[in-house]
């Protein structure tokens, strides 16, 4: 087993997070292996359990999808932005990120088979961001990964993906090239799972908050522009031949989330996609990718965009979130 415990953080403080960032690692919170589903309570506590933040509202952002589709790479842009944002808020300096010399890092990416665990990796600390109203929000990032390639992993993935949908305020479903029908079917299955698990909370409206499709290597920008607006048009159009079924799945998803939207991203360039030596250097990205990535990250994570996780109609604190995670993990552990 690996990375099941958090790196030692004697005193979590909401200051100096940027300076100490290099000490932080992702932690495998729940994992599934064969029939076993395991919640790493110590790991969870090491992220959310600090007394300094127990009453802070928590924002939980998950990126979910199959292996080798650039999820961790995407999350590393989120880290880059959030730490830069925090620094600019604390020092009252202009926000400066993704410069020519920047290098994204943090979540394991392009790593060996051992990392291909079905489970949820949580960034080892919440990143504290000030909201426009002056509240300090704890922003937690999740890397939810699985493979829908055979019967046994299918069940595990459904469970893991349902759990990450339940606990997050923003679930980003990462796909390559297009929103394929099978991806939609997988998604609607775990959304249904999550919906059933949270049924008692139905009096509080839609079960989940935001769902964002992120389409990587989108190949038809002349038809649908990169970014969010093209994404909406892309989501609303119906490819010939699959009208009825696709519509039904989409409607089902729309009924479960407060907000459903989509981003189309360009191909990052051959240095990212093909070279084993790629180390996350921003200067190696295609300029159009860098620009679209920048816009997407800002519109998802700026202080104005961050939404605390709502549990039973109320914003959840870090302390509440820890219990909530455990409650639902227990529901699935059978
Ligand atoms: P994950 O398994 O989904 O977390 O994928 P990773 O983030 O580890 O990325 C897997 C591989 O895809 C790495 O070699 C990346 O350099 C590459 N990659 C990352 N983002 C993209 C993308 O948007 N398009 C393409 N074609 N490759 C990407
Ligand atoms: Mg990954």
TrEMBL record:
Q: Which UniProt keywords apply?
A: GTP-binding, Hydrolase, Membrane, Nucleotide-binding, Transmembrane, Transmembrane helix
Q: What domain of life does the native source organism fall in?
A: Eukaryota
Q: What would be an example GO MF term here?
A: GTPase activity
Signal peptide boundaries: none
Domain (GB1/RHD3-type G) spans: 55-305
Q: Which family does it belong to?
A: Belongs to the TRAFAC class dynamin-like GTPase superfamily. GB1/RHD3 GTPase family.
> Could you tell me what this protein is called?
GB1/RHD3-type G domain-containing protein
Whole-protein coverage range: 4 to 337 of 531
């Amino acid at each position: 087993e690996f990375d099941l415990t958090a790196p030692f953080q004697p005193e979590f403080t909401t200051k100096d997070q940027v300076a100490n960032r290099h000490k932080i690692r992702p932690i495998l919170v729940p994992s599934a292996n064969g029939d076993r589903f395991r919640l790493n309570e110590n790991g969870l506590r090491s992220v959310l359990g600090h007394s300094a933040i127990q009453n802070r509202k928590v924002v939980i952002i998950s990126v979910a999808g199959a292996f080798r589709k650039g999820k961790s790479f995407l999350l590393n842009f989120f880290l880059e932005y959030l730490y830069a944002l925090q620094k600019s808020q604390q020092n009252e300096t202009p926000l400066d990120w993704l410069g020519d010399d920047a290098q994204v890092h943090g979540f394991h990416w392009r790593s060996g088979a051992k990392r291909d665990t079905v489970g949820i990796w949580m960034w080892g600390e919440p990143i504290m961001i000030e909201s426009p109203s002056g509240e300090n929000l704890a922003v937690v990032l999740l890397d939810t990964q699985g493979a829908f390639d055979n019967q046994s992993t299918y069940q595990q993935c459904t469970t893991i993906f349902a759990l990450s949908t339940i606990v997050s305020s923003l679930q980003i479903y990462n796909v390559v090239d297009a929103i394929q029908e099978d991806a939609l079917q997988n998604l609607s299955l775990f959304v249904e799972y999550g919906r059933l698990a949270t049924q008692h909370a139905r009096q509080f409206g839609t079960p989940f908050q935001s769902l964002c499709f992120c389409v990587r290597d989108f190949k038809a920008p002349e038809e649908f522009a990169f970014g969010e607006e093209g994404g909406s048009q892309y989501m609303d159009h119906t490819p010939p031949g699959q009208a009825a079924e696709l519509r039904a799945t989409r409607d089902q998803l729309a009924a479960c989330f407060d907000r459903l939207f989509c981003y189309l991203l360009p191909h990052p360039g051959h240095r990212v996609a093909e070279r084993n030596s790629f180390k996350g250097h921003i200067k190696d990205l295609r300029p159009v990718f860098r620009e679209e990535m920048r816009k997407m990250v800002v519109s998802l994570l700026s202080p104005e965009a961050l939404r605390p996780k709502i549990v039973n109609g109320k914003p959840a604190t870090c302390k509440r979130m820890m219990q909530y995670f455990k409650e639902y993990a227990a529901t699935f552990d059978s």
